[in-house]
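Bench notes, afternoon.
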Amino acid sequence: MKRRDALAGGARIALTGLVAGMAAITPIVPALADPPKTDPQLDHAAAAALRRLVAGNTAARLLNEKANAVLVFPKIVKVGFLLGGAYGEGALRQGGKTLGYYNSAAASYGLQAGVQWFGYALFFMNAAALKYLDDSQGFEIGVGPSVVVVDEGVAKKISSTTLSQDAYAFIFNQKGLMAGIGLEGSKITRIH
């Protein structure tokens, strides 16, 4: 009896933590109404985030020069307590202009607790990868075109002759308290 009560109490605590965490990110989840055709605030945030990333990282600068387009998510919020979720909105940029808006969402489970903010940029290196993003009903990282997450080790090996993958991802501006970060399983969907 004591064990069952302890398990029920643990489940209640986990559920309470998840509800509180999701309540924290609810204000950033878009309303179900039609989004605006342009979003100057998101355009500015995405352009500024890309400028900072390219200015501070040689590999990102090289990828930006060679990429067909770059999908920039200036801020993703990740919340978790055993169960977790992450959400953010971004802009697909090409030649200094926005081609469209996307959201990135992910769910996770396992040993996790905390809240974290980060941004990421996906550099689409060929037309096929960019077409897959446009044609798919949700581009899922880890499925479809190959995506390499660039860390310090990978960044040292990138040159104009070693660029062979469909897309490269940079994670930047990590803040908050949560162990680990990853993009695998994130689903990117166009905002119509």
